[in-house]
Amino acid sequence: MLTDAWRRAARNRREPRWPQRQVAIESVQRGITVVRPQGALDMHSVPAFHQTLAAAVQRAACGLIVALADVTYVDSAGLAALIEGLRWSRGQALPYLLTPLTPAVQRVLELARLEQVFPIAASVEDAVAQITQMPAQCERSCYQRQWSSMELYTNKG
C-alpha cells in the first residue's frame, strides 16, 4: 500500500518551474554597454546570464557596466559569472564596473571579500563618467576596437 502511494506521488511529481529571468543589454553611450540582470543570479539563471555577459564583452568597445539594481539574490554561481565577466573584460583591456549594488548583493560581495576586486560605481551615470574620464590611451584603444570590429563586417567578402 505504501509503495502504491509512492508510485502515484512520483508519477504526479512535476519539475519545478523557475520564474523567467531577463537580462537586458543596452548601449548608453557609443562603445559602452550596460547589462541589466533581473531577479536572482543563481544556478538556475546563471547560464543565460553567462551567455549574455559573454556577448556583451564582445559587443562593448569602450567599457562594460553590469547594473545590479534589479538583482535580489546572488549565490556562488552568480559570483562566478561576475568574476568570469571581469576576467573576460580584463583580457580585452575593457573597463568593467558593477553598479548600483542592492544591500543583498553588497553583503555577498563583502562576505566573499570581492568588494575590493570589482570596480563599483554608485550609479550607471557615475560608471559612464568613470569610463569616459579614462586616459587618452584607453580612448584610442576604444576606437581601435570599434574600427577593427567594423573591418570584420566589411571584409567578409
List the helices and strands and how they pair.
Blueprint: H1 2-12, E1 23-29, E2 32-37, E3 39-41, H2 46-59, E4 63-67, E5 71-74, H3 76-91, E6 96-99, H4 103-111, H5 124-132, H6 136-154
Parallel strand pairs: 2-4, 3-5, 4-6
Antiparallel strand pairs: 1-2
Helix pairs in contact: 2-3
Helix and strand content put the structural class at alpha/beta
Sequence of secondary-structure elements: HEEEHEEHEHHH
Provide the domain count: 1
CATH-derived architecture: 2-Layer Sandwich
Rg (CA only) = 20 Å
Distance between the termini: 71 Å
Residue share in helix = 40-55%
Could you state the CATH homologous superfamily?
STAS domain
Q: Strand percentage, roughly?
A: 15-25%
| CATH topology call | Transcription Regulator spoIIAA
> In terms of per-residue confidence, which ranges show pLDDT below 50 for 5 or more consecutive residues?
14-19, 147-157
Note the overall shape: elongated
Order of strands in the sheet with most strands: 1-2-4-6
What can be said about the biggest beta sheet? 4 strands, mixed
Task: Kindly describe this structure.
With about 160 residues, the protein is of the alpha/beta class. The chain has a single domain (about 20-155), classed as 2-Layer Sandwich (Transcription Regulator spoIIAA), CATH 3.30.750. About 50% of the residues lie in helices and about 20% in strands. It has 6 helices and 6 strands. The protein has helices at about 1-10, 45-60, 75-90, 105-110, 125-130, 135-155; strands at about 25-30, 30-35, 40, 65, 70-75, 95-100. The strands form 2 sheets. The protein has a 4-stranded mixed beta sheet with strand order 1-2-4-6, sandwiched between helices. Strand 1 and strand 2 (about 30-35) form a beta hairpin. Helix 2 (about 45-60) runs parallel beside helix 3 (about 75-90). The protein is elongated and about 70 Å long. The termini are far apart.
